[in-house]
Specification:
The protein has no helices and eight strands. By secondary structure, it is mainly beta.
């Protein structure tokens, strides 16, 4: 099967250059897809997972020259409990990006669910 994520078609949230946006995930979510796009401008972004007890894990650094033709999409497995996905636009102010975070695989089941 094709496990590679398809970029979300949702509009998402605009994140201005130099700023950070956080997306809280409910405790039952065990994975989330992050899609980062732009209106044809370069994308420079960092994706972080903020877990419990102020644990921060950097998941991805995204660099591309056109977030419209080369959208970034990744599926992130999240540990149990409350988690936050943080996306930082490390580009300049004039390069806003759009971010969509959507839960994938809703329920956390016992055992090794696929």
């Amino acid at each position: 099967g094709d496990r590679s994520p398809r970029p979300s078609m949702s509009r998402g949230e605009t994140v201005q250059g130099g700023s950070l946006k956080t997306f809280s995930l409910p405790a039952h979510v065990n994975a989330a897809q992050v899609t980062i796009t732009s209106d044809g401008l370069p994308v420079n972004a960092k994706v972080e997972l903020w877990g419990t007890a102020s644990h921060i894990k950097q998941l991805a650094e995204v660099y591309n020259d056109n977030g419209q033709t080369r959208p970034f999409a990744a599926i992130i497995d999240v540990p149990g409990g409350e988690n936050t996905i943080a996306v930082r636009n490390t580009g300049p102010l004039e390069y806003p990006i759009r971010v969509v975070v959507e839960p994938v695989g809703q329920q956390r089941m016992g055992g090794m669910g696929m």
